[in-house]
């Protein structure tokens, strides 16, 4: 049945493959390698062809999609063995139909095919995902050496046209020729959005034949992408095209909109939540009633519910077909005490309803995705679900209970600056902006008192306090550690001066107290740090030097740099002046203020103490290449401040 249904598409694929063969054979293997090495110098491999051909067919109210993929990689040097392993994916939304992988080994003026015979299939689990129905088929190409080509042809059936994958023109190696074709009946309207294709010569053509239209996009000679650390996800910079079905014919012959804009996307999402069981759970009602007793304000009720879900429902991610989009009933999530993001969002909303508070289920994309609803209204725009509470007209509180340490009033760090799609009712929605938290919402404060010992070392006693996102991050890091692991982690967190740093005592407070900073009180020793010369003592009070080694190679780095959140770090260090000594030199004030990065370091004498007050702030989520030189200027001046030393001199008798 399936073979007959797609016989036209299979014949087209075979014809296309036959027509493509003379192109590959037109050059001898050695000539092809020489040409690609000259065109892409220093590269280990190149995709000669990187193609996807989609065929859409209307069947009643449904649209069937068949995607044929062809990838032909030429290996240019011995290090390309890193690319001998490959895989394709199979899931509810992309069902693998057929797969043929082979190595084309040079043989005289042509090639000899060596087929892959050993394929392995397994479930593909991602970090943080408890269950995912995605399976991968993996294999290793045989006989790979410089001059060989590794070729893969595979066919995927997409049962739902609303969940199609983007086409990336670029890849992890250069691409000689990239091509996407979409063939559809005239009564199926196809739309698309291009991203990061500025400066590229992408050709587009549309061919009409009989009752079908073929849309074709091609690009040639694409370089390999940047490989900078701390860069954004590939969707932020790789050239790609998102295609989607905008209209399909309905049973009455009229056009039915599928993904024409935000209203159509919300219609899809609204359908996911429309079948939730409206009958409330008596057990859950009792919990909510107990929570709101004594609550003086509506915000108190919201906060109590939010914190209860954080504390009592374990986040467990499920990606199982449509189950990855449809929330489970609040009563079931409460009974099981676990759920994924949409389950926890729906539970939070239902509990707030029971508490007499209006809130909204909300879809949102994390910062891994660069898209906005206004530019791409497809399921590819978001990947997360939360609850939104409108504290006052136009003032929204974004409640993400999957993050157990997130304080009320702050969105999760990974949704800052994103657009959120709020479900107002069954037919109406609203897109609102999630704010970016300012640096003063995530302060780190370290206050310590130092004394000199008689062996050239320091003894210190201090208190480190973290709030906002730093507290969230460190709370997760400390959560569940045994005593040995915790001691090691605290030492690494506090470490300063040199490698002869020892923590003698510490105490962690307010790990689970949401309205207080996470506090670590500590005592430590630092050996062989102080310099003595004749009657002078030299002490550098910059025991911690954040960003000292953070210069960016602005001539080589091509990608922006991503930061989780803005923060400000304040440290106050008090050094007791030893008996018989006086202050010979205090460094001058050093400061530099930039919109994304700055600092101020000042010293003063207060009685028998020298006090260093140091502030360093970071104020960006994505640092653009045009800002690198200014960043480096701040780093240079900051390092100059770090080199400054306090000088104490023995008093004359």
UniProtKB/TrEMBL annotation:
Residues 286-359 form the Transglutaminase-like domain. Residues 89-225 form the DUF3857 domain. SUPFAM superfamilies: Cysteine proteinases (SSF54001). Pfam families: DUF3857, Transglut_core. InterPro entries: DUF3857 (IPR024618), Papain-like_cys_pep_sf (IPR038765), Transglutaminase-like (IPR002931). Coiled coil: none annotated. This is Transglutaminase-like superfamily protein. It comes from Hymenobacter psychrotolerans DSM 18569.
